[in-house]
Amino acid sequence: MPQLYALQLERILSRGYSADETLALLWHGSKDELAARIDPEPTWERLLTYAAEHWANVEAAVRGGYRFSFLTVGGLMSLLAIKFRKREETDYRFTGERIEGLRLTGSELALLRSMVPAYWAFIPAEAADAEALAVEAGEDAVPDAERMVEIAIAMMP
For position 128, what pLDDT does the model report? Predict the structure, then answer.
């Protein structure tokens, strides 16, 4: 799914709308309604036009998930903010080349990996450091899917 439309779709989903409610907003809603109910900043008309022209793809994305066809570093940072509530300088550092120090649960990491194009590399923190942090944080009894992992994300050359 193209970055612009996927990020707008994530804005709707992050507000807690179900798949059916999201699709109804896209099918029957207006740009003014989306601005009032979701966020006044984006230009919603483009998403509504895209949804009308590519309804089957939008419906499949809302109901079953999607993968970005192309994702810039700015788009990745927006996705982290919208979907995972992770902010630069609070939850990770951006070095100009890569995102470092990002902590996600195992299930969040799996979801993020499934969404981003394959040219993004996920680099785990040093295994010893990650294990020490987990023990220090008392995460021994946490299931793998919910255990926090620290990663860096970089675009492969």
Answer: 37
Between the two ends of the chain, the Cα-to-Cα distance in Å is 22
pLDDT digits (tens, 9 = 90+) for 43-82: 999 999 999 999 999 999 999 999 999 999 999 999 999 9
CB atoms within 10 A of CB 78: 17
Contact at 8 Å (CB) between 153 and 120? yes
Tokens of 125: 């923190």
Strands 148-155 and 93-94: unpaired
Walk across the sheet containing 120-124 and list its strands.
Answer: 93-94, 98-105, 148-155, 120-124
Judge whether 10 and 66 are in contact, CB under 8 Å: no
